[in-house]
Each structure stands twice: as structure tokens, then as C-alpha cells.
């Protein structure tokens, strides 16, 4: 994904100036795009898990077993909304990460923070439901909520580090202004240069 964005000209290429590639903003852009890729993968994984569970329930209903509505609550799968929430929320969070990477603004920063929190909360609920389903409903343990949670935590860490870098830049700029005011400027010395011919 990063290579495709470099060929499209959205990200700086590896042949660009080394100093430009070493800037912290470039690294945060790359890390945000990796986080977005994790969000997209987690959303696809959650959708595939939902379809697999749905197909398994459909197969079970066709095998002369009671339908999912007739099963006791402890043997039913998660409601459709709870199953689809990661599949819908993860791509939205990924899109917010892409927007923050390419066109950072205060609104995209707020959107990433809110969506990261929602994703982490949803992943905790998903892990709990997956563990409960594996022990009580004889389902397979799903690791999709863990991937979603890791992507949300990565988003939080990126926000925190990006804020710390911006704060340190502002602090250094403030200190530089103070030093410029306190230290007198040197007056240039004009020396005579005598040329003998």
C-alpha cells in the first residue's frame, strides 16, 4: 500500500532528499497509513467472520436442528449489530487515519481520537464475546477483535507521539525566540584589505 501511494505521488519517494524523509511528519504519515491498513484488514476480517458464522448457522438450521431463534440465549451467536459493528467501524477509523495522514486538521485529529476510543471499546467487547462464545457456545475463538484493538491502540500512540513532537517543536521555537532577543547580534567587522600591485 505504501509503495502504491509513493508511485501515485502522495508520499515522498525513497529517491527524495534524505533530510526530507528524516522529518518526523513523514514518519507519522507512514505510520498512520500502516494503522489505516490495519483498520481495513480488521474490518474485512470481522466481515468474513460474520459471514462464516452466518453460514455455519444456516448449515445447522438445514440439518434438522432448531433455528437460531429457537435456541436458548446462551447458544445463540451475537446479534447482527454487534457482529457488523467492527466491520463498519474499522473502515471508518481507517479512513480517518488516512485523512489525518494526508491532510491533517483539528477535525480529523478529533475524529481519529474518537474513533480510536470507540474501536478499542468495541474490541474489548469483541474479545469478551469471543471468549464467551468459545467456552459456552462451542464457537471458534476469533482473533479479529484483537487486531482491531491493536490498531486502535496504535492510533492512540500515534496521536500521543505526534502531539509530543509538535509540543517540543513549539518549545524549541519559543526558546529560539528568547535567545535571539537576549543575545546581541554581532556587528560585522570591516577589515581593510590592501592589495599591493
Give the termini distance in whole angstroms.
68 Å
Low-confidence stretches: 17-21, 71-75
Sheet/helix structural class: mainly alpha
Q: Order of helices and strands, N to C?
A: HHHHHH
Residue share in helices?
A: over 70%
Our estimate of the beta-strand percent is: under 5%
The coarse silhouette is: elongated
Total strands: the figure is 0
Q: How would a textbook summarize the main sheet?
A: none
Note the total helix count. 6
Q: Specify Rg, calculated over alpha carbons.
A: 27 Å
Structure write-up:
Helices cover 72% and strands 0% of the residues. The protein is mainly alpha-helical and 197 residues long. It has one domain. The longest helix has 39 residues. The radius of gyration is 27 Å and the shape is elongated. It starts with a helix and ends in a 15-residue tail after the last helix. About 5% of the residues have low confidence.
Compact summary:
The chain has six helices and no strands.
Features of this protein?
197 residues, 72% helix, mainly alpha, 0% strand
Task: Draw up the topology in text.
Layout: H1 2-7, H2 18-21, H3 24-62, H4 80-102, H5 106-136, H6 144-182
Amino acid at each position: 500500500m505504501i509503495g502504491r501511494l509513493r508511485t501515485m505521488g502522495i508520499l515522498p519517494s525513497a529517491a527524495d532528499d534524505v533530510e526530507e524523509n528524516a522529518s518526523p511528519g513523514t514518519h507519522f504519515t507512514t505510520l498512520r497509513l500502516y494503522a489505516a491498513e490495519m483498520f481495513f484488514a480488521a474490518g474485512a476480517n470481522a466481515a468474513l467472520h460474520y459471514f462464516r458464522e452466518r453460514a455455519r448457522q444456516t448449515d445447522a438450521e438445514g440439518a434438522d436442528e432448531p433455528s437460531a431463534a429457537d435456541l436458548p440465549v446462551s447458544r445463540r451467536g451475537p446479534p447482527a449489530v454487534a457482529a457488523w459493528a467492527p466491520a463498519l467501524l474499522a473502515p471508518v477509523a481507517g479512513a480517518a487515519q488516512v485523512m489525518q495522514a494526508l491532510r491533517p486538521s483539528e477535525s480529523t485529529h478529533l475524529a481519529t481520537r474518537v474513533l480510536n476510543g470507540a474501536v478499542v471499546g468495541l474490541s474489548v467487547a469483541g474479545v469478551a464475546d469471543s471468549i464467551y462464545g468459545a467456552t459456552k457456545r462451542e464457537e471458534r475463538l476469533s482473533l479479529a477483535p484483537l487486531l482491531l484493538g491493536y490498531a486502535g491502540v496504535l492510533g492512540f500512540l500515534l496521536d500521543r507521539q505526534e502531539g509530543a513532537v509538535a509540543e517540543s517543536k513549539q518549545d524549541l521555537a519559543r526558546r529560539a525566540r528568547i535567545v535571539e532577543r537576549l543575545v546581541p547580534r554581532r556587528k560585522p567587522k570591516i577589515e581593510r584589505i590592501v592589495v599591493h600591485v
